[in-house]
Write a structure and sequence with these properties.
Layout (H helix, E strand, L loop, with lengths): L6 H95 L1 H20 L9 H7 L2 H28 L5 H26 L2 H31 L8 H84 L6 H13 L5 H10 L1
Helix pairs in contact: 1-6, 1-7, 1-8, 2-6, 4-5, 8-9
Length: 359
């Protein structure tokens, strides 16, 4: 190890130390860059592995659920069909029971209808008097007449307003005029029919209305009986045992399918999913281990380079910097000082530094 009394050897050792320091720093930069790339690759591999696990588990779970969902959908369809068949049988039973319960009332109404037809025929009344539609239109009562009048006024009001608006906008008024004319014609026809029937056959209409009222009373009674039968809820009286058994069987199958789905997904979540993740992890384990080993080796090289840099900097600071100064710790300046000594221009390190500063 040369000292300052041997200036050329002293500076030559400094030059070698500086060159080694520069080389180590350059190497450290490359190692740090490589470390960043390796850690990025490991992070990417880890994330992709986790994504693969998540995607695989979700896909397999959805496949299991979809398979059972198809079974459940089919089972629900069978339950609905069985329920519809039972309801149809129940409705038929209630209809049959209601028909039997209203037999006398319906028979009495048949008699009233025949009486109405006979009365119209014997009194030589217009055939329209046999239709209940006539009485609904031409014998509606005070409220009915008010509603008809209000309806006519509304139609005429709409027609007049639209005619005014269309005329102001230079649009066609024909549709609204036609609507008004139709309303007037219908109203006129209504009045003519009313005048030629209600006034002319006033007493006969009263008799027909009494018969119609009896028919309506019986129909109301029949509907009341039918409602009471439907509200009773006495399914046992309709012999639905066969349908109940079929419905129960379909419901049991549906419950079994739903329970099987639940258990299959539970087993998948607690067991199969973990195994799938382990398989995926094992498939990438070698690559992941290789990256970790390379990162460990890289870190060892980084530590070694840092140690060399520390040793070189320590040596420069302790041996050389006090003689040449921090500003001259540079390859080109040290080489220039060695040249000055070789040329005889400087005999010591201090003279070489001074000569260098003069340039």
């Amino acid at each position: 190890m040369a000292d300052v009394s041997s200036p050329k050897e002293f500076l030559t050792e400094l030059l070698m130390t500086v060159d080694a320091l520069d080389a180590d720093k350059s190497e450290l930069d490359g190692l740090l860059s490589a470390k960043k790339q390796l850690e990025g690759a490991l992070d990417s591999l880890t994330k992709n592995t986790e994504k693969e696990k998540t995607s695989m588990v979700r896909s397999r779970r959805e496949d299991i659920a979809a398979g059972f969902d198809r079974q459940i959908k089919a089972a629900k369809s069978e339950v609905r069909t069985a329920g519809s068949r039972r309801q149809k049988a129940l409705n038929e039973g209630m209809d049959k029971k209601a028909k039997e319960a209203t037999k006398d009332v319906r028979g009495e109404n048949d008699g009233h209808r025949e009486t109405l037809k006979t009365y119209v025929r014997n009194h030589k009344l217009p055939p329209v008097f046999k239709s209940r539609l006539y009485y609904a239109l031409f014998c509606p009562g005070i409220i009915g007449y008010v509603i008809l009048a209000a309806l006519f006024c509304i139609i005429m009001g709409i027609s007049g307003a639209m005619i005014t608006r269309s005329a102001a906008a230079s649009a066609s008024i024909a549709p609204w005029v036609f609507m008004g004319i139709i309303a007037i014609v219908l109203a006129f026809a209504y009045i003519i029919i009313w005048a030629n029937t209600r006034i002319r056959y006033r007493d006969e209409i009263k008799s027909c209305l009494n018969i119609i009222k009896s028919i309506r009373k019986n129909e109301k009674q029949a509907r009341k009986i039918e409602r009471s039968i439907k509200k009773a809820g006495d399914d046992d009286s309709y012999d639905l045992h066969e349908y109940d058994e079929a419905l129960k069987e379909k419901q049991t199958k549906l419950e079994e399918a739903e329970e099987a789905r639940k258990q299959a997904l539970l087993k998948f979540d607690e067991d199969t999913a973990l195994k799938l993740k382990e398989e995926i992890e094992a498939r990438h384990a070698e690559e992941k281990t290789s990256l970790k080993d390379r990162i460990s080796a890289n870190e060892a090289e980084i530590n070694s380079a840092k140690e060399r840099i520390r040793a070189s900097e320590t040596e420069i600071n302790s041996r050389f910097i006090s003689y040449v100064g921090a500003a001259n710790i540079d390859h080109d300046r040290i080489a220039a000082m060695i040249k000055l000594i070789d040329e005889g221009t400087a005999g010591t390190v201090s003279e070489a530094v001074a000569r260098l500063d003069e340039k």
